[in-house]
Amino acid sequence: MLSEIFNGKSLLHRQIHSRLFAIALSLILIGKLSASVIRIDGGFEDWKDIKICANDPKGDAKGTFDITKVYAASQGSILYLRFDTTNLLNLQNGPEAEGTLSVIIDLPNKQELVLDMRGRRAFLNDSLKERIPWDRLKYIVGPTFAQNEFEIQVDLGGFNVNEGDSISIQFDGSDQLSAPVAFTFSQPSETPERRSHSRYPGTDVRIVSFNTYFEGLSDPNRQEAMGRLLNSVNGDVYCFQEEWKTEGHGEILKCLMPLDSKGRWHIHKVHGNVIASKHPLKVLPSKNDSYASGYIGLAEKQLFIINVHLKAMGYIDSREDRLRIQQVNDILATIDEIHKGKYKEDDAPDKQPAIVMLGDFNLVGSRKPLEMFIDKKVYGLKDWLIPNLIGESVITWRGGPRASFSPGKLDYIVYSAGTLIPKNGFLLNSELLNRTECRQLKLDAADSKLSDHLLITVDFQFSDSRKK
To answer: Is 145 among the domain residues?
Structure first.
């Protein structure tokens, strides 16, 4: 009898202890979002106030991905997940021998959502053939380049997950946590910030970059939407990518974006890269077909434009990645010529040039192509992270409903920080605009669907004092 009483009390104590532990763990993991909004951009400063919810030992992985730390946060039904690894890897692509990493989310309705990273697919339970499109999950991964820290966004609202609901998170494939992470959705949805599309006071030039997706400028089925999209931002200089075969862009743009009777579009094209300027454009020679470069005179100053479309596909140290690095070496040679005054038209050799380099960098391998530009201190180049006109997304490529790679940031803006002052800058996704905004910009909500990339607009002012 005493034994039964003792065993009963012992069981009760264990149950109470277990429940208290679960409550304590839940309180720890609920956590608050940091004051800054989490952006899936491959940067992790916005995670600084998010507590670690799981530590995993180094060296216990059976595959290439060796997880060490896991963080989780939420807004409404959106789950933000960050995990650190020991190796520098591309999350979505690599040699087949490296294997894959999966995130397994146990949902409240007893379903299991699987996010297979290298398999580049999402599915419920064991339904491998019934792939869930990324856009249905609002799924984003960052960064696209090789890293040992990654962040993921996935919206679980379609599975009736809301504020107050709990899930568990586990990994599979290359590595597993010793126990699943319990996470409770605790933060309400935030109203997205709505930014202005207007030029700020002091702006000297507005530059637009747009990958038109396989000859989009000349496609009659996309002509009306293309015209609305390009006119909505009223750029001074447009940089287009993927215009490989099309010629006669002056006449095409004259139809899409008519200028006054005295105006004409000044065009320079190298392979699929087109620079179109309302101002006279002087051509610079290209050392390979991944970029077009030229300069225009603005406010009695030269502005150098480099329109970039680096090699696509591959992963870190792949053939494609090595080719991107070779292409960047050639672009750096052109930048070096600019800095040495080869293309100057004035008698001020002490002045640093104003350079804007933008386009589709295709950083799906290493980050080295970008680092090669911004790490050269002598050039004074800086990367500018551009947010969407609506909300906090910095994603520039969405793919289509059947795309295996998830949406990511592939387009970049690099500029001379000593000679140019960034003003307004935004990505334009017409699908996010309300009716009033569509009317103001003279857009249809579906216009941005004409390409897999989003249109990017950046404004610059020339600096009054130019560094020597």
So the answer is: yes
Tell me, what's the pLDDT at 346?
A: 67
* pLDDT tens track for 52-83: 999 999 999 999 999 999 999 999 999 999 99
Return the SS3 of 62. Answer: coil
Overall size of the chain counted in residues: 468
| Contact (CB, 8 A) for 355 and 463 | no
CA distances from 131 to 115, 121, 125, 230 (A): 10, 6, 11, 35
Burial of 68 (0-12, 13-18, 19+ CB in 10 A): buried
Residue 416 belongs to some domain of the structure: yes
397-403's contacts with Cβ under 8 Å and 24+ in sequence apart are: 397/211, 397/452, 397/453, 397/454, 398/135, 398/452, 398/453, 398/454, 399/134, 399/452, 400/452, 401/133, 401/135, 402/133, 403/134, 403/452
**How far does CA 34 lie from the centroid of its chain?**
21
How many CA atoms lie within 13 Å of 88's alpha carbon, on the beta-carbon side? 10
Report the predicted TM-score, pTM, of the whole model to 2 decimal places: 0.90
Q: Which two tokens stand for residue 347?
A: 């008698």
CATH number for the domain harbouring residue 238: 3.60.10.10
How far apart are the two ends of the chain, measured CA to CA in Å?
A: 92
Domain that holds residue 273: 205-462
Cα separation of 369 and 321, whole Å? Answer: 9
Q: What is the rounded distance in angstroms from the CA atom of residue 108 to the CA atom of residue 110?
A: 5
* 443 in a structural domain: yes
pLDDT one-digit tens code per residue, 118-154: 999 999 997 877 899 999 999 999 999 999 999 999 9
